[in-house]
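User: Predict the complex with iron/sulfur cluster.
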Amino acid sequence: MKHFNSFAEYLRQVYGCRVQKISINIPFSCPNRDGSKGTGGCIYCNNTSFLPEYTLQFGSVAQQLNDGISYFHKKYPTQLYIAYFQNYTNTYARLDKLRKFYYEAINHEKVVGLAISTRPDCITDKIIAVINEINRIKKVFVEIGIESTKNNTLKILNRCHTFEDVKNAVNLLRNHNIWITGHLIFGLPGESFDDIIFHAKNISELKLQSLKLHQLQILKNTPLHQLYKQEQISVKPLNLDEYIQWVIHFLEHISPDIYIERFTSESPPDTVIEPKWGKIKNYHVIELVRKKMSELKTYQGKNFKKL
Ligand code: SF4
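Assistant: Here is the predicted structure with iron/sulfur cluster placed in the model:
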């Protein structure tokens, strides 16, 4: 039984081999840090926590791609790559700068596509025109930080955008036939297991192509860490078993058409205050999810109700 719709398998079918994302670290800013939307950023955000080792030095895009490819080459000599603009808000810069970075990435012979992570309120017609231009040459995957479909939660997180902003961004991208990935976090302040069905319904209605799921992590040097330490926020970090239960409940209620890209964050353990899962990798969590779904004889979309 196929338990969920795997993005990795989709890529393998399309490109005929394993496809790996390579993080590109460009010091873009973020409207939630520079004051145009907010200051201080989202309460859980610590950008350095999701930088793989090979991106710790800023280099040119080509240099970072070459470093990343050499890092993986020994183990996977024939695989291809997606250049992943991951940190900060990767559509938040002058258009000529963005175009230059994006082109530098797709011009690499081993790169088959571009993944661009951004906020829903940083998708404009002008940005879409640039993305469309790139998308005609190599596939572009636009990753939108949704995090929660509840506006109350987004407010607690200081995201400085609403779920309506997400719907607007998705509609704009959809009009241009661009692949949309959503990013969601489970275990957010004030949210419970019962919110999962609400999120599943809202996410399915967006008709995204793919999704990334993450556990909330309380990271060092973040406002969330301070709030947690001072007991000023209601949050209960999920242990691994609980998280897997939440993920499976969610998968059962979402559309079977959505591809699932990731199941976990891999922040370095020394940056994580809670939950302490150790040095767990995404593929470990995938195995655990598959094993549990197999025991429960369940699958993605089992309880999905098409409207
Ligand atoms: S999570 Fe993203 S949107 Fe929020 S502060 Fe960090 S970079 Fe900005």
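The beta strands are 19-24, 80-85, 111-118, 139-147, 179-186, 210-215, 218-219, 259-262, 272-274.
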